[in-house]
TrEMBL record:
Protein residues bound to GTP: L338, H339, A340, R341, I342, Q343, T344, N436, K437, T438, D439
Record's keyword annotation contains GTP-binding: yes
Residues annotated for Mg(2+) binding in this entry: T344
Molecular functions (GO terms): G protein-coupled receptor binding; G-protein beta/gamma-subunit complex binding; GTP binding; GTPase activity; metal ion binding
Cited Pfam families: G-alpha
GO biological process assignments: adenylate cyclase-modulating G protein-coupled receptor signaling pathway
Domain of life the protein comes from: Eukaryota
Compositionally biased spans, kind Low complexity: 160-171, 247-259
Region (Disordered): 1-32, 142-180, 240-271
Cellular compartments per GO CC: cytoplasm; heterotrimeric G-protein complex
Protein name in UniProt: Guanine nucleotide-binding protein alpha-4 subunit
Entry keyword annotation includes Metal-binding: yes
Keywords: GTP-binding, Magnesium, Metal-binding, Nucleotide-binding, Transducer
Organism: Scleroderma citrinum Foug A
Length: 525
């Protein structure tokens, strides 16, 4: 029978029990234990001090500018935040550069997974021993069909809508020359199996094991500070990241490190990085030819052209650049970082010092998760916000919400904008509207995608860039007009936030207009 040791501490308190010295402790063990406890106390006190100092530093002063980036998922808020970071804290983006590999590799692996899953739906290519699938055979037989992009066969856009489609392989466009078919899809699929199989681990690394219910289908979310998880062994770099973190003030002039060991892309940072990411990098390097063969495979091209395979813009971007992305010692370019896609979870705060008439003013930028299940997290930030940039992707007229496939994205964006304009907490906030993804809108219209097919009210207006943009802009302006008791101005910009030069000039413009309001309210002029 177990006897309880009598003690003045509560025997029910597991912590108290754990802290008790072991029974029959020798003098030398006791000395070691006391030393360890003293050291643990010292570290704990130091962390407390650092946390206290950090909290003090992060305390929002009433003179700071608080800017919210709002809008639905995939509208471009985090991409815009990266542009702010590039402009006002380029050093911090340098420090994160290496960690973006995790997101980009994840984007590539997910894209491959989606291609193979779509192919599987279309044809059971693993069925039987024949290395050539039914789809491939049918497609080979269709050599008399017009070539992609040639007259009489308008090149269809890479599909992004979620409306159901019926497989119709007989209508598939023809293959590129037979000489380019190094392998059948079933062979490629088999060889890419282990790379695809690593997706859950990559997802786990990014999300830190947190899964989010009710916000999209199996999406992976990240909280601010996720970068540190991608650099588990990069102690030096990780130290710098966790100290700075996404929530810490960053100086606009923070220098890019001069220590070659810490420079992004140096052998030291690479060798110190997460073994999982290094393994994926090596798998990608070895699979590079297979990925390219799959991406360029005539059946895949045909499915894309017929909008049976619907890939996101970032999938296209990274698969087109697969030679670069899968190269040894790959280090993401700034353009890669701007195109990388990972959903934001909750609200991530970023702090920048922005000069105004020679005086630094602290800006708090709040980048929110835009999926429906994330929107409740915005409200606590409404109270003392000075300005909002509402981002709406006007290219999304043919897309539906991931979290609600019956709702058209433009519709959702207009509804959300109505809620923002009419919210009493936000009635005095400086309002800026970014009609974003104009580059994608242009491409969709050039490829012949008809707006009226998805937005019935568009009717028989010309299916061209200017009239389409004017139509959408008019709807947003109307929402604003109907919900504008305070007669505030709405500043509108047509944007492609992956275009650094154009976006930075718009940011300067927005900054100046926000400052004018800020100066008036702070009675500084
Ligand atoms: N071509 C193009 N791509 C864009 C543009 N804006 C954003 N993207 C891409 O769209 C994807 C989604 O952008 P994010 O900035 O992650 O979207 P978000 O609004 O932060 O989404 P949530 O965090 O889910 O709310 C990324 O791959 C971006 O690179 C744009 O103007 N043009
Ligand atoms: Mg985001």
């Amino acid at each position: 029978m177990l006897m309880r040791t009598p003690s003045i501490r509560s025997q029910d308190d597991p912590l108290a029990l754990a802290l008790l010295p072991p029974p029959a402790e020798s003098e030398s063990d006791r000395q070691i234990r006391l030393k360890q406890e003293a050291e643990a106390r010292r570290i704990s006190d130091r962390i407390d001090e650092e946390l206290k100092a950090e909290r003090k530093r992060l305390e929002r002063s009433k003179d700071d500018v608080k800017l919210l980036l709002l809008g639905q998922a995939e509208s471009g808020k985090s991409t815009l935040q990266k542009q702010f970071q590039l402009m006002y804290s380029p050093g911090s983006l340098e420090n994160e550069r290496m960690s973006w590999r995790t997101v980009i590799y994840f984007n590539v692996v997910r894209s491959l997974q989606k291609i193979l899953a779509t192919l599987e739906v279309w044809d059971d290519i693993d069925d039987g021993t024949d290395s050539q699938s039914t789809l491939e055979r049918q497609e080979l037989a269709n050599d008399d069909l017009p070539i992609l992009g040639k007259p009489h066969s308008p090149l269809q856009p890479v599909g992004t809508d979620t409306s159901p489609t019926t497989p119709s392989p007989t209508h598939l466009a023809p293959p590129t020359p037979i000489s380019t078919r190094a392998s059948s899809i079933s062979e490629l699929r088999l060889r890419l199996l282990s790379l695809i199989g690593i997706e859950p681990q990559l997802a786990n690394r990014l999300s830190g094991g947190v899964s989010v219910a009710g916000s999209g289908k199996g999406e992976v979310f990240v909280r601010s500070g996720w970068q540190a998880r991608s650099l588990l062994k990069g102690q030096k770099l990780m130290g710098r990241l966790s100290k700075r973190s996404d929530n810490s003030p960053t100086s606009p002039s923070s220098p890019v490190t001069s220590d070659p060991a810490e420079r992004p892309g140096s052998s030291m940072t690479v060798s110190n990085a997460d073994p999982l990411i290094e393994e994926v990098a090596s798998m990608l390097y070895q699979s590079h030819d297979d990925i390219r063969a799959l991406w360029e495979h005539p059946v895949v091209r045909a499915l894309i052209s017929k909008r049976k395979l619907k890939l996101d813009e970032w999938s296209e971007f990274f698969l087109n650049g697969i030679a670069r992305v899968s190269a040894r010692n790959y280090m993401p370019t700034t353009d890669d970082i701007l195109h990388a896609r990972i959903q934001t979870m909750g609200v991530a705060e970023h702090i920048f010092d922005v000069e105004i008439h020679g005086k630094p003013v602290t800006w708090h930028l709040y980048d929110v998760g835009g999926a429906r299940g994330q929107r409740h997290t915005w409200v606590p930030y409404f109270d003392d916000a000075n300005a909002i940039i509402f981002v709406s992707p006007i290219s999304a007229f043919d897309q539906y919400l991931e979290e609600d496939p019956r709702t058209n994205r433009i519709d959702d964006s207009l509804q959300l904008f109505t809620q923002i304009c009419s919210n009493p907490l936000l009635k005095s906030v400086h309002l800026v509207l970014f009609l974003n993804k104009t580059d994608i809108l242009r491409k969709k219209l050039e490829r012949g995608l008809r707006v009226s097919k998805y937005i019935l009210s568009y009717g028989d207006r010309p299916n061209e860039y200017e009239p389409v943009v004017n139509y959408f802009r008019a709807h947003f302006l109307q929402v604003h007009k109907r919900n504008n008791e305070n007669r505030r101005v709405l500043y509108t910009h047509l944007t492609n936030v992956t275009d650094t030069k154009a976006t930075q000039s718009i940011i300067e413009n927005v900054r100046d207009s926000i400052f004018r309001g800020y100066l008036q309210s702070a009675a500084l002029v």
